[in-house]
Write a structure and sequence with these properties.
Oligomer: heterodimer
Number of helices of chain A: 21
Structural class of chain B: alpha/beta
Largest sheet of chain B: 6 strands, mixed
Order of helices and strands of chain B: HHEHEHEHHHHHHEEHEHHEEEHEHHH
Strand order of the largest sheet of chain B: 2-1-3-6-7-10
Structural class of chain A: mainly alpha
Largest sheet of chain A: none
Strand content of chain A: under 5%
Number of strands of chain B: 10
Shape of chain B: globular
Radius of gyration of chain B: 25 Å
Number of strands of chain A: 0
Largest interface: A-B, 42 and 55 residues
Helix content of chain B: 40-55%
Helix content of chain A: 55-70%
Distance between the termini of chain A: 34 Å
């Protein structure tokens, strides 16, 4: 079940919310937690019920591995930990990467293997990582002994089950066991953040997809996108991804608040970053935290010399990349970010304490840093979205101008008006894919501007993060956007909610080539 | 002394929540009422009132979502299945009098694969008192590598049923009642019913040719775009079986034959006419052997099914017709520019006027009356090899009488031809 579905919004959420608080008020915390787990299982099983077996199997196995590790003194039962982590990765690997392995074997050998139908259980990457973190903490002696019910709830609680944030066990256990009562301020804030997230997802991200997808689809089908298409497609995708993922995280945080639970912030205006290191502090914050604490640091972090540090960083980013999806392009995307980080670290070390460092933090220097960071991120998103290296290469070529510029008749007429010969822009390798009307341009560039300049959800609502996410002050010009629990804001958010709800399942008209 | 009343600490938040839900609920009720009354997709079965909701706009792009529900309000006794060819060619089917039992309903879906058509047909047989089915079989739809449209959902066809409550997929119900497209089209239904493009359903649903595109360029665009359907990426192959997706299009075809026979439904299968230029495009892109192979395969399946039901006491009619011949209509000259053609929207899509003649030929055929436009291949009226050879010789004649159009097709296929040849050589 998706948060941006009518069934969730009109049926599941109201029933879950009312029943949970009724049980908590009438029967106390324990029955309410049991009920929360039950509704979580219903939420999980809605799409594909057999997946529940995978989830329950994973919960039981990890819980007992954790308990066994806690029976030993810290850092003693390495064998148990190894088996636990390996088993988790094997399950994740089977469901998520079998097709990739088969396709690669097929490509290498030229043979034809047909993998069986493997349906990826919902949120498997998230619940697997959370449990790996838990058993590693048990091994380190940094975890407590939790009741099975609480453990299951921490791993699966439905607001974060689908798409994160990746929760640390300590973050959630206290939230559940606290005697927190239904509070109007949390509900009001939760509703507001949920509506913001829903609007980001269905109004912005889904619309931007209509500009990004045709370009990437065409590139996959050997079309060489020309300059305007390649830039519009990649910019639209950069915004789409941000609004989609951060919108979903906002919805999760909003739903969490409705149940009296503070979930960690996952996005803090990443496109405002002026360095790639800062980008990773603001983008998918809980994944970065996981990778740092459970991969980078155990590998040695930055404690064993510069070469090992670089290697550790690269390995962490490569695996982080592959976690995002079963395609070698994700691995390459992670590797590319690893390289960006290495270059940035080396550069920072070089200029530290010198004149350029101060220059880069202000004015033009700061703008240049932002521009370079955004360009690197944008460049790498092409690899993230493309279905193959070939498709990514075609789009990069288009962005660099190697595929020429294809103008729609409207722009050709405009050029003609100014007596400019379109041939000076080079011969286009393909006809235009997108129609860059003023509305299309407004969508693409307006959304980038929103991501770069507008305050984020937590700034608007005044929501303090429970994790170490960066907290920016509300910009002066945007103070009027600061949410207040007034009737005027209620009207504004109900209108936004209404518009978003109308877009929840847009039929997306089937445009059959020319008619 | 009574204590002074202390305002609740979260009074403002409570007011916010109350206001939010009141405004939201009022808005939702208003939108749902608008969409149900106007019913632009004709999925609720709302009665039509003159001047209120009697003129619905063109919703062709939403057919895959709406038609399974529209069907439930039709009680159709005759149904047409197929893709855009059937959709456009038999557009005003409901109003034609060709001997089809009434009411008749056009259930064709743009760009439908054989698998989509099979599932739609099975739903229709479950839900409607069907007596006659006209199945327009398109060559591209039987390529196992040609995927179902992403908007097509098999579970929608299960949910769209009179026997199941609520008779809708919940997502679709939400979409029809609260979706932005519903609002947009409801608005047009209620307030824009006099606009020119809503004058009559048949006119509004006809393929639209951009006014600034010369007619021959329009034909070329069609010929250029089709090879990617005959050899869809990434496989760029034509085959009836794609094991990796468990897809067997001939199995789909046989299932349709069986389903109709089992329910005693008369089935007329039509290989639709295509413009002679399109035949040339098939040859030039390397798809001709596949095209002939496909014809042989479906004729063989239909023959086998006919053999199976022949022993029954009252076997339902099963006929397969080929209209992809060379005659005056299929060789209608395509001017460089000018008015649209009489028989063709483009190389692959015939006009409803042509469609009417086809239905008349099929429905009113007698053993003594020889068809002018098509050939009945099942039950056999002509040797298949002879028939295919005649089609080939027809193409030679077309090349001789219209060399400029042949060059035009080759010009349009410049890139596609290379692609097809390259893939064939792989």
């Amino acid at each position: 079940m998706l948060f941006n579905s009518h069934i969730f919004i009109f049926f599941f959420l109201p029933v879950a919310f009312m029943s949970y608080w009724w049980i908590k008020t009438a029967g106390g915390s324990l029955p309410a937690r049991r009920w929360a787990l039950f509704i979580t299982f219903v939420f999980f099983a809605w799409w594909h019920p057999p997946d529940l077996l995978v989830l329950i199997g994973s919960l039981v196995a990890n819980y007992f591995v954790g308990r066994r590790l806690l029976n030993y003194p810290p850092r003693q039962a390495y064998g148990t930990l190894f088996i636990g982590v390996a088993a988790n990765l094997a399950v994740l690997g089977y469901f998520k990467y079998t097709r990739l392995v088969v396709a690669t074997a097929q490509w290498l050998s030229g043979g034809e293997f047909i993998p069986g139908d493997i349906i990826l259980p919902l949120g498997i990457s998230f619940f697997t990582f959370q449990q790996i973190a838990y058993i590693i903490d048990c091994y380190r002696g940094e975890a407590s002994r939790y009741a099975f019910l609480d453990y299951c709830l921490f791993v699966t609680f439905f607001p974060h089950l689908n798409a994160g944030p990746i929760i640390h066990h300590r973050e959630l256990m206290e939230e559940f066991t606290s005697g927190r009562r239904l509070s109007a301020s949390m509900v009001a804030m939760g509703l507001t953040i949920f509506v913001i997230g829903l609007a980001k997802k269905v109004l912005l991200a889904d619309t931007l997809a209509t500009f990004a997808s045709p370009v990437f689809r065409a590139a996959q089908h050997d079309v060489e996108p020309t300059l305007i298409d390649a830039w519009m497609g990649s910019l639209a995708y950069a915004s789409q991804l941000y609004f989609d993922f951060s919108g979903y995280s906002d919805m999760a945080i909003g739903v969490g608040l409705l149940f009296g639970v503070h979930l960690p912030i996952n996005f803090a205006s990443p496109y405002k970053s002026t360095s790639i290191t800062e980008f990773w502090r603001r983008w998918h914050i809980t994944l970065s935290r996981f990778l740092r604490n459970y991969l980078y640091i155990p590998l040695g972090g930055n404690r064993i010399g510069s070469i090992r540090t670089s290697a550790n960083l690269l390995v962490t980013m490569l695996l982080g990349g592959l976690w995002h999806g079963a395609n070698w392009t994700f691995l390459a995307w992670g590797g590319l970010h690893g390289l960006f980080l290495l270059v940035h670290h080396r550069f920072t070390d070089t200029v530290k304490g010198r004149q350029p460092e101060a220059w880069l933090k202000r004015g033009v220097g700061r703008i240049l840093c932002w521009l370079l960071t955004f360009a690197c991120v944008l460049f790498s998103w092409v690899l993230f979205r493309a279905d193959s290296f070939g498709a990514a290469l075609r789009i990069w070529k288009g962005m660099a101008g190697f595929n020429g510029v294809a103008f729609t008749p409207r722009y050709l007429a405009l050029l003609d008006q100014f007596r400019i010969d379109p041939a000076i822009f080079g011969h286009p390798a393909s006809p235009p894919i997108l129609n860059p009307t003023s509305s299309a341009l407004a969508w693409v560039f307006g959304s980038v501007a929103l991501a770069v300049f507008a305050p984020n959800s937590q700034q608007i609502v005044g929501f303090s993060p429970t994790n170490q996410a960066p907290q920016d002050p509300m910009p002066g010009w945007a103070r009027w956007l600061r949410w207040q629990p007034t009737l005027l804001w209620a009207l504004a958010f109900s209108l936004l909610g209404l518009i978003a709800l109308a877009h929840v399942t847009q039929l997306s008209e089937f445009l059959y080539f020319q008619f | 002394m009574p204590p002074a009343s202390v305002p609740s600490p979260d009074r403002a938040e409570r007011r916010f929540i109350g206001g939010f839900f009141i405004f939201l609920s009022l808005g939702l009720i208003a939108i749902a009422s608008l969409n149900i009354v106007a019913d632009p997709f004709r999925v609720f079965g709302t009665p039509r009132w003159m001047g209120v909701n009697d003129r619905t706009p063109d919703t062709i792009g939403f057919d895959r979502v709406a038609k399974p529900y529209q069907l439930l309000h039709q009680d159709a006794r005759s149904l047409v299945f197929g893709s855009s060819t059937a959709h456009n060619g038999f557009l005003a089917l409901e109003s034609w009098d060709m001997g089809l039992p009434k009411p008749a309903y056009n259930y064709a879906l743009l760009g439908a694969s054989a698998h989509e058509i099979r599932l739609s047909l099975e739903q229709a047989l479950r839900e409607s008192p069907v007596e006659v089915v006209v199945l327009v079989a398109d060559f591209f739809a039987y390529n196992a590598y040609y995927a179902d449209n992403e908007r097509f959902l098999a579970k929608r066809l299960d949910a769209a049923s009179r026997r199941r409550w609520p008779g809708y997929m919940l997502e679709d119900l939400g979409t029809f009642m609260l979706g932005i497209d519903g609002i947009k089209y409801s608005w047009r239904t209620l307030f824009d019913s006099h606009a020119a493009n809503l004058a009559s359903p048949s006119a509004s649903n006809a393929p639209k040719i951009a006014s600034n595109v010369p007619i021959r360029v329009h034909f070329q665009n069609c010929e250029r775009s089709y090879p990617s359907r005959w050899f869809p990426p990434p496989a760029r192959r034509y085959d009836f079986v794609d094991a990796s997706r468990h897809r067997d299009t001939l199995e789909d075809f046989k299932a349709m034959l069986r389903a109709c026979s089992e329910q005693g439904v008369q089935l007329y299968i039509i290989i639709p006419p295509i413009h002679a230029r399109f035949n040339e495009a098939l040859v030039a892109s390397g798809a001709w052997p596949n095209y002939e192979g496909w014809k042989r395969a479906i004729v063989s399946c239909a023959d086998a099914q006919l053999g199976r039901i022949a022993a029954e006491k009252h076997p339902p009619r099963l006929e397969l017709w080929d209209f992809s011949l060379f005659n005056q209509r299929t060789c209608e000259s395509v001017p460089v520019s000018g008015a649209p053609l009489r028989w063709w929207h483009d190389s692959a899509h015939f006009t409803p006027e042509f469609g009417q003649s086809i239905l008349a030929e099929v429905m009113q055929s007698t053993p003594r009356k020889r068809s002018q436009l098509g050939v009945r291949l099942v039950p056999t009226s002509v040797e298949l090899d002879t028939h295919l050879a005649e089609v080939r010789s027809g193409l030679e004649k077309f090349r001789a009488i219209a060399p400029d159009e042949v060059l035009d097709v080759h010009d349009a296929l410049g890139i596609a031809t290379v692609t097809a040849q390259r893939s064939a050589s792989r």
